[in-house]
Amino acid sequence: METRPVPVRTILAAIGLVLAAYVALQLVVQTRQVLVWIVIALFFAVALYPAVDALERRVPRCRRSVATLLVFLLAFVVVVGLVALFVTPLAQEGSRLAGRLPQLVEDARAGRGPVGDLLERTHALRYVQQHRGQIRTFATGLGTPALAFVRSAATTVAGAVTIFVLAYLMVLEGPKVVQGVLALTDESRGARIRRVGAECARTVNGYLTGNLLISVICGVLTYVMLLIAGVPFAGLLALFVAIADLIPLVGATLGAVVASLAAFIHSLPAGIAAIIFFVVYQQVENHLLQPVILSRTVKLNPLTVLVAILLAVEIAGILGALLAIPVAGMIQVILRDIWAHREGGQLKLPMRGDENHDKPVRAVTDAD
């Protein structure tokens, strides 16, 4: 059997593809932070896009630039209001704590008061007295982590501003970009792309709505538990837990640690009750609330929701947890459309504002 040599052009093409893939991978690695900002901005843009469309459509002579500006200003006011709702009581209680700090320190040294009683029960004062040298060495080494924290805070502020600007431009220029892309296709294919895109956007909005609902449930139940246990500042702690619960993967644990610590400072039974509550609630949230609520808002099977979260967390950590459910929902929409398109069947992809919202829509085929 005669063997033919591989053409030089084929070898060069294979080498070129490998080098191009390597360069693309390195580009993603080097720009991963910017890519994360873009993805988060895209989430906010998809969430605010319907509000801008509604305002532009219902208010006479309202330009898209004005509608976008008004919606983003309203969103900014809401965010600032939530921050003020959290920071203002914290600042007030912080100043009150600063005024009581000398007396609290004196009571702690004498084993009096809630802090002193806690330190006395845990033998913390004895531990501090026995390990003064090690604690002093540890304190002197906190300069570098503090500097890293300042840099991280500056990066976070820059990221928040960048995300806000990106989301604003995405919403403002979105229709032009969509029209430009659809202009490259024929009418039937453009209608199909528009319909699938609308359903994907609805999936993202459903995820955001479901996530907010879960956080509200977490905050309300935490407030009731802390109120029954008699823990001071129950409302403030519950608000912190609800906001922290929005952070995927680590937010629920962070809120539980802070609330449990506050409960322990109040009393030992309150601390134990808080730990039991958060352990039970997190199991219920992870295995019941999230699958059930997100399966209704994102239209995914609860098993699919749970599997998607577990796989995405293992692959991409916090970002994977953030994207797992909406990405799984969009994949489901696209696969359903492809299947219906190939089989010539029916696909239920309702457009916003359609009168026959609940009626199945015939899949668009090339023959159309």
Automatic annotation (TrEMBL):
Pfam families: AI-2E_transport. PANTHER family: PERMEASE PERM-RELATED (PTHR21716:SF53), TRANSMEMBRANE PROTEIN (PTHR21716). It is a multi-pass membrane protein. The chain crosses the membrane at residues 12-29, 35-55, 67-87, 148-171, 212-231, 237-257, 264-284, 304-335. Belongs to the autoinducer-2 exporter (AI-2E) (TC 2.A.86) family. The keyword Ligase does not apply. Keywords: Cell membrane, Membrane, Transmembrane, Transmembrane helix, Transport. The keyword tRNA-binding does not apply. Its main location: membrane. This is AI-2E family transporter. It is found in: Cell membrane. It comes from Streptomyces gilvifuscus.
